[in-house]
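Figure 2 data, in text form.
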Amino acid sequence: MSSIELPSEIFYHNLKTSYNKLGQYIHECDILHLLKTDDSQIMSICENLVQYLKSNYAKENEEHLNDQNCNLLSLWIYEQLFEHLEDSSNRVLITYANFQHMLSYVFTGDNKIQAIKCLRQLGQLGSLKNEWKKSKDLYDYCVDYDEIIKKASSSYEKCKEYEEYIQKKSPLYKEFDRLYIQAYKSENNDLYKKCKNYNPIIAIPKLECDKKNLAQEMSNAFLHNFLVKILILQKHLAMCYWE
């Protein structure tokens, strides 16, 4: 799959492209210097975090920041830190904690706590060492599942494309409970239960790609026969006209 069409993909893409607009939140992240963090890349990640929360703070906090978006945001921040700090779990955990500390100074007002809590407690990922990416992939898949099923129903080709995509998630379900983020399970047990049923063993048969292929072939055959009949009728009418 090359296009960006799933909810998590769109969310992460928007965060990445917003890097081009950074610079206006440098002062908010200055506190990181006091925490002995002067890495320019870390500062950019910090600015991106502040920019997202500032941009979405007012409108989303009318009914609290969207839980799903906060979860994805936290995972994206973790991913950026792991990639930059070369999978050094201790440094990632410390920097992530510094970000949480920084937010307590940046945000004020009635919704301050909600904005700060949007950066989730993800200490579990640090203990997973190099397997943190599996936890992220699993959660992304759970968030995207409904849209996957919707898009897979559009055509046989799309169905087979997503069938292969879902099949690649099979290894994650062999260690589902270990990889599913505990903090996310605690806050939304319903999604956890739903996600457990998104197991490829259960999900792939529901796609019914072969039925879609048969229906598509029958539709194409019907259209072909219909066009042939139209051409025959036109030819017959033309012959009658010239007689």
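Caption note: Residues 6 and 146 are 9 Å apart (CA to CA).
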